[in-house]
Amino acid sequence: MRTGINHLFIPGPTNVPESVRQAMNVPMQDQRAHDFGAGNLSLFSDLKKVMRTTAGTVMMFSGSGTGSWEAAITNTLSPGDKVLMARHGHFSTLWAEMATRLGLDVELVDLAWGAATPVNEFARRLAADRHGKIKAVFVTHNETATGVTSSIAGVRAALDTAMHDALLFVDGVSSIGCIEFRMDDWGVDLAVTGSQKGLMMPAGLGILGVSPKAIEASKTATSRRAYFEFSEQMKHNPGGYFPYTPPTQLLHGLRKALDRMLEEGFDTIAARHNRLASGVRAAVQAWGLETCAEHPSIASDTVTAIKTPASVDAREVIRIAYDRYNTSLGSGLGPLAGKVFRIGHIGDLNEGMCLTALAVTEMALAEAGVSLTYGSGVAAAQTIYAAPITNAARVAAE
Known about the structure:
Layout: E1 7-9, H1 18-23, H2 41-51, E2 57-62, H3 65-76, E3 82-87, H4 90-101, E4 105-110, H5 119-128, E5 134-140, E6 142-143, E7 148-149, H6 152-161, E8 167-171, E9 190-194, E10 205-210, H7 212-218, H8 230-236, H9 248-264, H10 266-287, E11 303-307, H11 314-325, E12 327-331, E13 340-344, H12 351-368, H13 376-385, H14 391-397
Parallel strand pairs: 1-12, 3-4, 3-5, 5-8, 8-9
Antiparallel strand pairs: 2-10, 6-7, 9-10, 11-13, 12-13
Helix pairs in contact: 2-9, 5-6, 10-12, 10-13, 11-12, 12-13
């Protein structure tokens, strides 16, 4: 029999704050009632604040980030269109597979799992594309499988330097609402996210930021779509309604989650994620282990993928943490299965929660056969967390 709570340290779905959970405890509503839409209008406007866009349009689909991937592709591109993508982790691989299945001509740059999107190589290929055959560039902002964050600003600069007109697609599922994301400043045309990560919600909403350029592209794109049709959303969303039955409980939860985020402030949220991630990374170093990220400069602030020694199966670390200590750690995906486990530090999280994750991880690592000193990682993280908080964080706390 398990006692206490399950400690959830996977990179999504993330912990749902109690206030958000309670906000979803509402009876069913008439989603066609004359007063239903008014309460949803602020959701669209506040999601634009999360994405840092004034020019873009936000859409919500019942689904997940994967559904939003498909909506972004099918509404703005046509079969046979060439797109430029990098494959350097599980989710960038899945996105490339989807693009291929939907009939796109995918030009892939293959990289080690642990690398970031190759800005210089993208720049070279865009500069060489003098006839504009590449219609879109896809970037996985935060590769959740490897704990790596790529530079969207760098890819935008490459597009601008090459004077290239390709659409810029960004998978921000595990970055938007957690780390810096600037849709307008970075010239992002399709920004994809979901409800179950930085927005601190259950899975069930696929969310898209769509630029005016992407809206125009949707008017001529010939990919087949039905449920994910932008034009249907744009008919109903201005009044706060949806073309199909929305998950009304999630809309109530989203309102509360956005209230929390607005109160904390987006810059402070990003600083908090960096602070928590820095403590986790310090612990990994103290254990004498390595992260999957090839260089500290690209390490993610929302998830850390940790390599185990060759003699230790990472799946055993995960099993011990779950079975003995009621703690969920993220698994290694694809070719990283058994070689990597992940600690998610994303969403509604604080220093005490991260220290719990690290203390349990130490015990699981030791039982699985990793030689370490108990408390070494915890102490390293404590040194980070005990340092004075930033002015922005202090103001938010007050």
